[in-house]
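Pipeline run #58 for the internal structure catalog. This entry was flagged by the ingest filter as a single-chain record with no existing model, so it goes straight to prediction. Upstream metadata was stripped on purpose; only the residue string is passed forward. Reviewer on rotation: M.T. Logging verbosity set to normal.
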Amino acid sequence: MKIFHCDHCQSLVFFENVQCVNCGHALGFLPDLQDMGSLDPSGDGHWISPLPAARGRAYRLCENYRQENVCNWTVPVDDPDPLCASCRLTKVIPDLMVAGNKEAWYRLESAKRRLIYSLLTLGLPLEGKGDAESGVAFEFLADARAPGSDPVLTGHNEGVITLNLAEADDSERERRRTQLHEPYRTLLGHFRHEIGHYYWDRLVAEGPDGDGFRKLFGDERLDYGEALKRHYSQGAPADWQQRFVSTYASSHPWEDWAETWAHYLHMTDSLETAAACGLSLKPRRADEPAMRSAGMDPFGESFERMVEAWFPLTYVLNNLNRGLGLPDGYPFVLSLPALEKLRFVHGVIGRARAAAARPAAVNGLG
């Protein structure tokens, strides 16, 4: 994530802000510029951003911004869709008449916007289901209240990503994390994992990397249902940490890919943030982890350069968390086989990025 500043007063602002706390100007994220901008009203519900890159372009507030206050993205006025490039990908929202559902919806959309930002930054193809058969859609569903009803399963199916609304409840998500013996469980992590399944279908299954995938991850044609049953009944193999990024990754090659993909997005987003903050590590001892300031575009770096910066960053992150009495922010260990899988993801994304005719293929951007 980049670091943003108010273009009126230069105060620091954040990705989720809707108003500058220093000068009071309205703020919105401009997806076509990948930047936060202040907004000046120009009449007829339109807004002008004084950012030089906007060149006087007029915007509307996303309908979910204007009506529900669950979004802070804008829409160019010449785009007929009332929703922004992120919100339009959500096809089912929870019943807002139910207490707590609006707050949960906001948390889900907020995490999704961070995902969409990352995908646009990486230059990955991204269309909605209404724009392309190979597009993606999101559904946010709550468990039915009727006794005996099946719970909503978070997952991916042919471009449709479903998230259980309960995952937006911090206490419930923590309960599930503990029950499943997971070291890490977040809304953003769910989104990154499930979009990984979508891009496997789009970039690996339909591309030239199938053989390379099977050499590293295994044969995805293994019975998926039986593999998951075995995983939940027997657990991960004893040596899982020597081959996988997580225990769940050991259940099936598809899950190994999705967990590795999510991990790659963790890395690129965190490294971009560290670079934007000018973070570097210059220890007093030569045998302690050191880190040069990373490039603003982590993907522009070689994979080796990314890893070189990543390990020192996680070292300091975990030590800072422990100093605050919190669990490790990065509770993972990357083995050499896991690193090779991450390198494979890096290559797949690089080829997709190079093949894209535009930096992003979201309808309404650019």
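catalog note: The chain has nine helices and eleven strands.
catalog note: Confidence is low (pLDDT under 50) at residues 358-366.
status: ready for reviewer M.T.
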